[in-house]
Amino acid sequence: MTTKSRLRDYLAKHTGDWLSGEYLSEEMNVSRAAIWKHIRTLRDEGFVIESVTNKGYRLVQIANALDQDQVTSGLTTRLIGRKDVVILKQTESTNLYAKLLASQGAPDGTIVIADRQTMGKGRLGRVWCSPPHGGIYLSMILRPGISPDKAPRITLMTAVSLAESLLALAPIPLRIKWPNDIMVKDRKLAGILTEIAFEMDRIEYVIVGVGINVNSAKEDFDEDSRGIATSVVMETGHHLDRNRLVSAFLNQFEKDYLLFCKEEFAPILGRWKQLANVIGKKITVDALGTIREGHVVDIDNNGILILKDAQGTLHSLFSGDVIKIHEK
Ligand code: BT5
């Protein structure tokens, strides 16, 4: 057993206890500098270890690494994640990686997950802050035989599957914000980026990217997202096993995806409406640069938001950012 493993096990056995560097170096029979080096490596692997002068080190949280075996053993699916679940320590963007695999012919249901993204993508060229160890950055390759006009439904469906699988594991007062956010009050817990590759007038493949803040603490986010983001642990005070959440999400997603492929979208839309609770509310939307204010009349069958402005004119919004929900 390496010194690092011995140290890890020792700290884990004494989780929550302060252990001085001197004490640990005697127990492990190595120098204090070596202890410090191994503590740094363990932190890089995701262990949360506090250090305080005159007290020493204290393990707060054992790393929960993303693990292919754990994810696949939790799957009850027959398509999603069945052929391949690729887990990467780091990549630019799982959507980019998945696109590459898809262009090489990867099958429907292939999954790419990373522990960290160096250039995680949001919509419209925005950035998705993707700190290591605490988030799930996941992309699915889908090859649904649907016409392109049905594609916006995929984002709505993903939001429903994600919201419900989160709710099944953590009691969070979340809601869906049209079109692609999972929110807790004003803070964003997860986002979805759907990208489509066309071949003539049919869909060649769809990449659905999902970013979920699970065990990330406030200080893990960069300055730009710190004021906007929240995570499961920030909301509940409890860490959640990321592998379990990935499996739960993929299991739920497959159920919805199979319905969706059979054109049975109405029940999914119904659940979306319940989880979004926005119909009838007054909102302000930035629709690709045009600010519109009005009441939400409906989200139609294709995920298009129908807004009625003060003059009574109806607007069909395909995409945008809800800047404000006027809660009366
Ligand atoms: C999204 O964009 O919400 C889509 C995010 C999709 C991320 C996943 S991760 C796996 C896959 N691979 C990728 O490269 N991307 C996908 P949008 O609605 O444009 O929101 C982006 C905005 O959310 C940013 O401008 C920030 O304000 C905020 N933001 C950035 N990182 C965040 C985070 N980790 N948590 C909450 N908010 C964040």
In short:
This protein has 328 residues and is α+β, with helices and mostly antiparallel strands.
Sequence-ordered SSE layout with sheet pairings:
Layout: H1 3-13, H2 21-28, H3 32-44, E1 48-52, E2 56-61, H4 68-73, E3 85-88, H5 94-103, E4 110-114, E5 135-142, H6 152-169, E6 174-177, E7 181-184, E8 187-199, E9 202-213, H7 223-226, H8 232-236, H9 242-261, H10 266-276, E10 282-287, E11 290-299, E12 305-308, E13 314-317, E14 321-326
Parallel strand pairs: 3-4
Antiparallel strand pairs: 1-2, 4-5, 5-9, 6-7, 7-8, 8-9, 10-11, 10-14, 11-12, 12-13
Helix pairs in contact: 1-3, 2-3, 6-9, 6-10
The protein binds biotinyl-5-AMP (BT5).
The site of biotinyl-5-AMP has 29 residues, from helix 5, strand 5, strand 8 and strand 9.
Give structural notes:
The protein has helices spanning 3-13, 21-28, 32-44, 68-73, 94-103, 152-169, 223-226, 232-236, 242-261, 266-276; strands at residues 48-52, 56-61, 85-88, 110-114, 135-142, 174-177, 181-184, 187-199, 202-213, 282-287, 290-299, 305-308, 314-317, 321-326. With 328 residues, it is an alpha+beta fold. The chain has a 7-stranded mixed beta sheet, with helices on both faces. Strands 13-12-11-10-14 form a 5-stranded antiparallel beta sheet, with no helix packed on it. It has a two-stranded antiparallel sheet with strand order 1-2. Helix 6 packs across helix 10. The longest helix is centred in the C-terminal third of the chain and has 20 residues, at 242-261. The structure holds biotinyl-5-AMP. Residues 93-95, 117, 120-124, 126-129, 137-139, 180-181, 188, 191-193, 209-211, 213, 225, 228-229 line the site of biotinyl-5-AMP.
